[in-house]
Amino acid sequence: MKTANPTFGLVLTGGGAKGAYQAGALKYIAEIGLVPQIIAGTSIGSLNGAVLASYRTFTEAVQQLNQLWDQLAQVEILRPHTGTILRTLSYTTQAFVPTLRIWTLDFLLKQGLLQDSTAIFDPAPIEQLLRQTVNPNNLRRGIELWVTVFPSLNIPGLGNNLLVDLIRARTGTDAHWLCVQDFTDDETLYNVLLASAALPLAFPSRKINGQAYVDGGLADNVPLKALAARGCTHAIIIHLQNGVHWNRYDFPEQSIIEIRPELPINKSDTPIIGLIDTFLDFSAERLAELQKRGYEDAKRCLTPIIQAFSTLKHQRQSHDNLINSTQRLLNDSPL
Hints:
Layout: E1 8-12, H1 19-31, E2 38-42, H2 44-52, H3 58-72, H4 82-96, H5 100-110, H6 124-133, H7 136-141, E3 144-151, H8 161-170, E4 176-179, H9 186-196, E5 206-208, E6 211-215, H10 224-228, E7 234-238, E8 255-259, H11 273-280, H12 284-331
Parallel strand pairs: 1-2, 1-7, 2-3, 7-8
Antiparallel strand pairs: 3-4, 3-6, 5-6
């Protein structure tokens, strides 16, 4: 449900399985009573945002989100097994650096690992989970949610659409921000959410009103612009990586609090392989660790701010009490 003048928003970035970190951070945010009026998400951040917007109260939504991440380790969310992909990418990393970006897709195609040249994983499990978790009618009545998608060129007969989209993203093609509550058709609404998480190579693109879309993280993994365009002046951003190629000074009108991992969040520093392995690790131990770290980092980031506001509030109360006491003395009749 769209808010007339949203002032406080939440930005959830993309990062695959690292989305469990956001669930932990949100647990602390709910505990201290903060409730966003508007949410913007990219990729896994969009799916987390959809859960948050699907429940009556924010506290209940956060509880449901954490329960979902607790259960994800029991669901075969990725098919085929990630070991096959990692071994393949490991080979290409060793063989084709520094031209990895060009050669990785070519190698996967030649080895027959991408039969249709579009996706490695079967999208059915994530589709089923989304339908079980997110009720479209509740979502339309919930917190205003914007998701980031990238318009794929999707040239017929060209097996290498990913490289085209990467070049377009790096040379200035903008991401699109879609408000989920604008879509009245349930299937289109689900496709909007799945499009935002359609990581190229991993999952297929999604068509919305005739346009093919893929993961919005190609061009905008920190979709604060979507909130700024709605006039939102205060926002919390939950990052899923330590070093972020994003400049908060591009938003001089917004007051921003950033929650980010204090320790390295990727499982390995190995180029490409460490990133992919981190994105795809849905093991119970890993997800529990990320939820715990998200909670602790949110507490570390927000506690000093809460304490500062509390101190300021007490100072103002003391100041007001002093003024009122002085005024009463001045108004007293002379003895």
